[in-house]
Amino acid sequence: MRHMGCGRSTMAARGRSRDRIEPTFSGRSRYEEDDDFSLDDDDRIAGRRGTKRPSLDATRSGAPDRKRRSKRGLPERQDGGLFSFIRRMVYWCIVFGIWAGIGAAGLVFYYGSRMPSASTWAIPDRPPNVKITSVDGSVIANRGATGGEALSLDQMSPYIPEAIIAIEDKRFYSHFGVDPMGLARAVVNNLTGQPIQGGSTLTQQLAKNLFLSPERTLERKVQEVLLSFWLEQKYTKDQILAMYLNRVFYGSNAYGVEAAARRYFNKSARDVNLGEAALLAGLVKAPSRLSPARDPDAANARAQVVLQAMRDQGYITDNEVKTAMTQTPSKAKSYWSGAGQYVADMVMDELSGLVGEVKEDLIVDTTIDKGLEKKAEQSLNDILGKDGAKLDASQAALVSIDGTGAIRALVGGRDYAESQFNRAVKAKRQPGSSFKPFVYAAALEKGLTPYSVFNDAPIRIGNWTPENYEKKYNGDVTLATALAKSLNTVAAQLVMYDGPEQVIKLAHRLGIETELQPNASIALGTSEVSLMELTASYAAFMNGGYKATPHVIRRVATAEGKVLYENTYDNPPRVVSETVAANMNAMMMGTIETGTGKSAKIPGWQAAGKTGTTQNSRDALFVGFTSNLTTGVWFGNDDGTPMKKVTGGGLPAKAWQEFMIAAHKGLSPAPLFGNGQFIADPDGFGNRPMAQGAPQPMQEQPTTIGGIISGVFGGGSSTQVETSFPPAPGQQQQAVAVPGGPIPPGDVGSPAATSSVQPRRTTLLDLIMGQ
Prior knowledge:
- By secondary structure, this protein is α+β, with helices and mostly antiparallel strands.
- It has a domain at 145-326: Biosynthetic peptidoglycan transglycosylase-like (Penicillin binding protein transpeptidase fold).
- It is built from 25 helices and twelve strands.
- The chain has helices at 2-17, 45-50, 56-77, 81-113, 159-168, 180-191, 202-211, 218-234, 237-247, 257-265, 274-283, 296-312, 318-327, 340-355, 370-388, 436-445, 479-484, 488-498, 500-510, 531-542, 578-593, 651-663, 705-712, 718-722, 764-768, and strands spanning 129-133, 139-144, 362-366, 395-401, 407-411, 453-456, 475-478, 553-558, 563-566, 608-613, 619-625, 630-636.
- The chain has a five-stranded mixed β-sheet, with helices on one face. A five-stranded antiparallel β-sheet has the order 5-4-12-11-10, with helices on both faces.
- Strand 8 (553-558) and strand 9 (563-566) form a beta hairpin.
- The protein is elongated, with a radius of gyration of 49 Å.
- Residues 1-18, 24-39, 42-64, 66-77 and 682-771 have low confidence and may be disordered.
């Protein structure tokens, strides 16, 4: 039966083979090796429903065949281990890159959405700079937040942009705002432990400086990149580089290459050489640490790195590198220095009152002669360096003014770097006898002449008894002699002749702006004034009687040339008559020729002036003039401590002479107004010469027997002796007492004591002895 079943099956199979080939489910067909597809009973849907599961024996009997098929088919399903690994790595890298890109895009979108609309982006205005120039156009100083004007690339030294590109962003002209190669290099260096580098381009640094805070966050970095793209799209490469160079911080309060060049080399960025450009480019990495003002060695070492980078990129040759290394400065000054800085401060104090708030770059043309400025500073330092220490004089100031009031030179102190206080303008000091010309000019206006005679003798005004500096007296003298010899007693009589109020009015008319005290001691300069206003007031005598309003600003204009202000001192008012001016000039010439200011003589030039010394030599002044300049000089100490017998005819007169000789070098001598001649007065004193001769002691009062007896027995009183002093002439009833008033200067003497050289009273024993 079994064989018959098999035979029927075989026959049926042969019959069906003619029509189609049925799949076999046990054993392998002849197509098995070529087919990739085969099914078991379990794989057929019908088998699961109606076909009985094969027996355990059938399953076991088919297992060896499946193992053989599995072993023969394994090589066909594997492509090789290494290739498969690489393929999987590429696949996952692509997947990761896609997701990373999506994430980065999301971050950019998020942080970008937190920024203002790009249509509102604009380059913020650069803080305005004030460029202050001398009469020849050279720069005295720059003032403002940046400390220097903005320059275009073609205005600055070509070495500067080359150096900054070489060391900071060598692919600046080829990238699109972000340098992928530079960023990758920075990442690799940082991960491998090599010197840390930043991946920011110059465009990114500019974006950060213009718009962003210095904090290191992911948000700021994303915004920096977006802003860099915007900058690159809106501006050219040259414009971006110029903006960067004009705004980057170079240390020591210098922003921009012009400020840095002025700060470190005292020159414009237009004139910077290769070595200096390399030093500036090196500062960008760490401005404070590499500043030549702080560490010149570190600055020079960094500059050499910059030079090597410039050579590697073909900007310079080996020979230029060697030359540049010898050009690198060794040390910068610790602060802005030079007397011109006092002028710059003065300009900034006045500027807003002339043009209002400074909102754009301005150019201020001053009246300062830079050559005279240097000579003035040198003369003060020469005298202080030679005699200052031994005479306890630590400070000095000078101001020089022409006939129009234009300040030609101003030195506010010994060293601006040590002290920025302007002693020529802001300090108020007693002028001492240098105030006397106002007293004499008021007397001349009242009708007196240089030949009017006064008695130089002890005098009492209220309870004040002025003394001459040498405590000696000359008897009858002319006003010309009294001024030349700076006789205090005559000045005190003159102030009472016309009244203190009239002296004050004249002083204010000539240019003294400080409030003055209307008392008798004003004759000897007890009211405080500034050196500048005192000097400007003397200029009214020099120019023939016109007010010389002191001014330092000549014109203010924008960088484009629009004039915002121009001074109007061309038509000054007349403040004294020509006669008074001429006579005062001739009288003050005597101070230099034969009086207390002999140390101020200028060979070949007529010069006039007046000395001034305050109590205990706390202040010493000399103010004088030629037909060209009026100059005032002060010596003293900031804390008011006395000097060692320094008078106005000493250190100040010597410094005045040194400066004025240098200032007049190469000029043809010209006479003073009035040519040094006195204008004859109507009373016939025109031919009377100035009083000459050595000072004489005070004449003894006539001796009486009552006086002698009183002296012997002590009955005389000091009051009786004091009342024998001649009173002030003229308005004697206006003599005022000055108890508790201003302390007179040193050349006045003790305000409460009588003259120490008054003659000894004759006693009865003297008469008996024939003495």
